[in-house]
Amino acid sequence: MSGTLFLVQILNGLQLGVLLFLIAAGLTLVFGVMDFINLAHGVQYMLGAYLAVAFYGIVGNFLAALVLALLAALAFGLLLEFLVFRHLYERDHLDQVIATFGIILFLNHAVRVIWGAAPLTLAVPDFFTGSVVIGNGLLYPVWRLVIIGSGLAVAAGLYLLVSFTRLGMLVRAGATNARMVSALGVDIKRLFMIVFGFGTMLAGFAGIMIAPIISVEPGMGTNILILAFVVIVIGGIGSIRGAFLAALLIGLVDTLGRSFSVDILRLVMAPSPARTVGPAIASMLIYVLMAVVLYVRPTGLFPARGR
Amino acid sequence: MTKVKLLVAFAAAFGLWTSAAHAQENVKVGVIATLSGPPAVLGQQLRNGFALAVKELGGKLGGRDTEVVVADDELKPDVAVSKVKALIDRDKVDFVVGPVFSNILGAIEKPVTEANVILISPNAGTSTFAGKECNPNFFVTSYQNDQIHEVLGRYAQDSGVKKVIVIVPNYQAGKDAAVGFKHKFAGEVLDEIYVPLGQLDYSAELSRIAAAAPDAVFAFLPGGMGVNFVKQFRQAGLADKITFLSAFTVDESTLPAQQDAALGMLAGSNWAPNLDNPQNKAFVDAYLKEYNAVPATYAFQAYDAAMLIDSAVRAVKGDLTNKDAVRAALKKADFKSLRGSFKFNTNQYPIQDFYLVKVAKRPDGKYETEIEKKVFSNYGDSFAKDCAMK
């Protein structure tokens, strides 16, 4: 186990972390500010990827496809909000879960009808193809570095937006006590719509950025949604800062677990059982982590203040 | 008294109905395949291959009008069992053709064969039914799964590969793949990486592979897993340094998504679209025209399954009531397989040639695997010796 390999695995962990953050940020805001459980958030991630593929097919330029797909994802998110979610805010959580689960089924099938069941693919933009050499000869794909960079940039932007703007102040206030914000004369419906649209767009952005790396297929949002929920539970519901730190934590724990669990187990076990037990333990690690966090700090590591 | 009347009426009606059914009705074939979820592409290839054959035969098998009932197993063994039971009890099919996946085969083999209906698997070929548990009602037109892995093991051995890393999903078929490969490869296996089934991002595993710097990687990552692994393998800059050997990871069902990333990668197969014989050429052209896609092994093996049924129905002159005669006719495999030489082993799995195939771009811009070299000739599986059938 060389130092370079360790460094590369940390980069891999960071990349997964920022991706999770992009999805979890919207989820935690929607959950925190509106007290609304949106299982369909993962579908927005899938939709972002599909839209990017579709627009890339039309315009043939990644940047243009990115912008168009973002706008389309936003528009679609707002449409969903207007048609469905708006009517669910006052209902209890079970209704929300059932309704948004229905949307998952509907949209997963809809993309299959439109684009087919076969996995689709998006090329890495020419400028960012290839890889860079890290340490003693290990290659690292440039596009993964771009994902890390853009994710961190979005995180910084969100931090500024939430901490220093009037809109951010309202969001923070909404996360603490939405009813009071409404009583003070803020149009809470409009605020909800903005937060929702923004969250949708971030999830779509994550889908677009990952599309050159993984295959775009129906149901791709489902697994990542579970991870995103783990992130917001660990980070503290409604907290952007919590979502960011928890996402990086989950990304690192998951990646390092997958990379080194077998090697570590080999120290105490025979190689053959270590190979089978290692991956099993690695895939449990983040859930164990979540259980521990819930036990020690039930509101998460960095709960939104005032909760 | 009324009860007796009712019973008599019922019996009479039933008798009438069965005698009517004995009049020359259609040959009924149930096709069971995975047609939903991400692996739906494989099931569609299977269904299309079978449908194409029936269409080319004028909607008939062995000269008799044919009805094909398609069912989706949803890749769930319990769903598959209830679907095949419906095919047998409600639709009264004479043959069941399917499935794609080995775990589904494990679930449906008993219900079908015990109902004395003939099951023809155009893809899944587990070791379970190749040895002691072989069954006179069960035929396979693909291969015994291990053989594909053995092709890669033998090729690695023969081509002077010294160090290999094996990457497979952490479930039974994955472990079987690793065993099959190592069965023919005597060199050093640096590491065996087991990943959760359905994993999409392989960054951590690829970094491990890069750090270990093997001569070759042996990957068994079917469907969407392979699409992602191949793309990321190429992006990580490993494709030019490490030989990529694979089973069920690059084929015509995944290539539309892998595209250039998969060019030059190697796989094991019993067939390829460019296999040179007239019937295969006609098949590939017809499939392209009908479905605008290059057929994969799933399609060709299902096509062969239809041709096999056709030959047997013809041999018994359309009389499917004598099952022994039907089985004997099937076992003769008196049809022109798209793969050329084909016959059944004692366990009713094929004896055939196996090839190393390589991914290439076709003149029409689509992708396909092409024959690189023959690795085994007239190769039967190693389990047949445990089968009691002759």
Give an overview in words.
- The complex is a heterodimer of chains A (about 300) and B (about 400).
- Chain A has about 300 residues and is mainly α.
- Chain A has a single domain, classed as ABC transporter involved in vitamin B12 uptake, BtuC.
- Chain A is about 75% helix and about 5% strand.
- Chain A has helices spanning about 5-35, 40-60, 60-85, 95-115, 140-165, 165-185, 190-210, 220-235, 240-265, 270-295, and strands at about 130-135, 140.
- In chain A, a hairpin with a 3-residue loop joins strand 1 and strand 2 (about 140).
- In chain A, helix 1 runs antiparallel to helix 7 (about 190-210), helix 2 (about 40-60) packs antiparallel against helix 3 and helix 9 runs antiparallel to helix 10 (about 270-295).
- Chain A starts with a helix and ends in an 11-residue tail after the last helix.
- The mean pLDDT of chain A is about 90.
- In chain B, helix 3 (about 75-90) runs parallel beside helix 4.
- Chain B is built from twelve helices and 14 strands.
- In chain B, helix 9 links the parallel strand 10 and strand 11.
- In chain B, about 40% of the residues lie in helices and about 20% in strands.
- Chain B folds into two domains: about 25-145 and about 275-350, 3-Layer(aba) Sandwich (Rossmann fold); about 145-270, 3-Layer(aba) Sandwich (Rossmann fold).
- The radius of gyration of chain B is 22 Å and the shape is globular.
- In chain B, the strands form two sheets. In chain B, strands 7, 8, 9, 10, 11, 12, 13 and 14 form an eight-stranded mixed sheet that branches.
- Chain B is of the alpha/beta class.
- The longest helix of chain B is centred in the first third of the chain and has 21 residues, at about 1-20.
- Classes of the chains: A mainly alpha (about 300), B alpha/beta (about 400).
- The interface of A and B includes residues 8, 112, 143 and 256 of A.
